[in-house]
Amino acid sequence: MSGAEPGRTAVRPLLALGSGALLAGAYQPVDLPALSIPAVAVFSAVAWSGTWRAGALAGAAFGLGFLGPLLWWLSGSISPGAWLALVAVQAGWFALLGSAIATVRSLPGVAWWTAVLWTAVEVLRSAWPLGGLPWGRLGFSALDTVWQGWLQWGGVTITTFVLALVGAATGRLVVSRGPRAAPLGVAGLVAAASMAPATMAAKQPRTDDNARVAIVQGGVPGAGNRLVDYHREVTDNHARETLALFARRDASGQPAPDFVLWPENATAVDPVTDERANRAIRETARATGVPLLAGSVTDGPGADGARNQGIVWSSSGAPGQRYTKRHLVPFGEYVPWRSLATRFSNRLTEIPRDMVAGTVGAPLDVAGIPVADALCFDVAYDDVIAPQVRRGASLVTVQTSNAMFLGTTQLEQQWDISRVRAIESGRAVVVASVNGVSGAIGPDGKVIARLAIRGTASAVVEVPLARTFTPAVRWGPWPGRAAVALAFVGLAGGAARRLRSTTYDSR
Fold first, then answer.
1. What is the CA radius of gyration of the chain?
2. In the structure, how many helices (H) and strands (E) does the chain have?
3. Domain range annotation of the chain
4. With contact defined as beta carbons under 8 Å apart, do 332 and 351 qualify?
5. How far apart are CA 350 and CA 189, in angstroms?
6. Pairing of the two strands 395-400 and 429-433
7. CA distance 430 to 462
8. CB count, 10 Å around CB of 276?
9. Do residues 393 and 400 make contact, with C-beta atoms less than 8 angstroms apart?
């Protein structure tokens, strides 16, 4: 080992840490998506330059540098301990990625294999442990860039692969041929990858008609982040603002909305069994004369269970179809290993019941419109909206609370993810939040309307209804499955080549 080698070994984790922080800048609040390519380039080059153990160390450093700033909103909204634990667990996935990238560095087409591995690890960390965390997927950073068209054609997964491929190819050219040779080759790859969706003559799904949706953001009294303490006032706020919105509509002579959208936790008690909550929704629906889709916490199964649901109330005030949140927040909506976890955190005793996750079924029928519904963090997962769209949904609604994240960048990050889902699904997305970001997004990802954060507000938005499917919706989960399968092939090939090389050198 040369005298310079220890110095280079020490620098690698620092470079990886810095490239992780660079990637965090591609998302809110910095919001410079162009940073994603150089971030991937630097990290890939670092991971290729050492052993699999050095790659793991670099990957862990990258994960800390990336997810630490990206998820900082957890520190103030939940606890520093929760932020640190989640970042550490997710950094473990990037340690695995760094080790895997180092393993395939001798394979032909190493940039391609690196992109495959990046995509596969992203798919896996979005599913495990405890339901996974898709926050910070590379494909989310394509919003408002030349790469955005890939979201419609290949979804977030293939968009991640394209960005990782361009980034890894950039790093490979710089490492193998020097910075003077890199710009021309990279420019060609960037041009090809950015122009590909346009070359395929992408079209937005055909729209047959429009829907008028009344978005109601009730607001939370006090500091705005203690919804449970004021849940009765929150429900009353939504009822009053809905009636006020319809009174303004009557005065202006505007046509009636097709339905009203209330956010997640518009009632924090079961509105079927709780008389006060039931009366608020029932009387509001009857007064407006249109259906109401309201987010509610409902009882069961059993005395210790609960569900987070979107419930369709008819214009006569009767509850109907329901969507149950599929992806629950561990230590927020349920407590894993409750008997052990509550010994370390008294705050967890504030969660007396564990919520039960739902499954994705047929779209909700709201005023004759097939609606794909998602509740809060559901929107970040691939298996919520697209399956409902494949079953006929022509519009997407996102019901979210976000009160506990008030004043953090989580609000804008989730709003951007909702915009990504609009492009991917080819559907307009209407978002109702208690006091976060409420508004409407077109199928092209452009903002149609946006309400002010924090206060009580409402608006009627007109959005297109789409009938046909984007290629991304048709692909479904298969790109992710293919990436995982190919990742194992690449790792096996890289390990075999390294073994043959070691055997040859020992002769």
1. 24
2. 15, 13
3. 5-202+477-505, 207-473
4. yes
5. 53
6. parallel
7. 10
8. 12
9. no
Distance CA 77, CA 404 (A): 6
Instruction: Quote the CA–CA distance of 268 and 218 in Å, as a whole number.
Output: 13
Provide the 8-state DSSP code for 104. Answer: T
Mean pLDDT lowest among 203-217, 291-305, 352-366, 380-394: 203-217
Phi, psi of 213 (to 5 degrees): -120, 130
Q: Would you say how long the chain is, in residues?
A: 507
* Nearest CA among 352, 397, 376 for reference residue 265: 376
Model pTM score: 0.93
Dihedral pair phi/psi, residue 352, rounded to 5° = -70, -25
> Lowest-confidence range among 4-8, 192-196, 359-363?
4-8
Q: Evaluate whether 257 touches 212 at the Cβ level (below 8 Å).
A: yes
Single-letter amino acid code for the residue at 498: R
Torsion, Cα 388 390 391 395, to 10 degrees, reads: 60
Strands 369-375 and 364-366: antiparallel
* Cα 290 from Cα 256, distance rounded (Å): 8
According to CATH, the topology of domain 207-473 is Nitrilase/N-carbamoyl-D-aminoacid amidohydrolase (3.60.110)
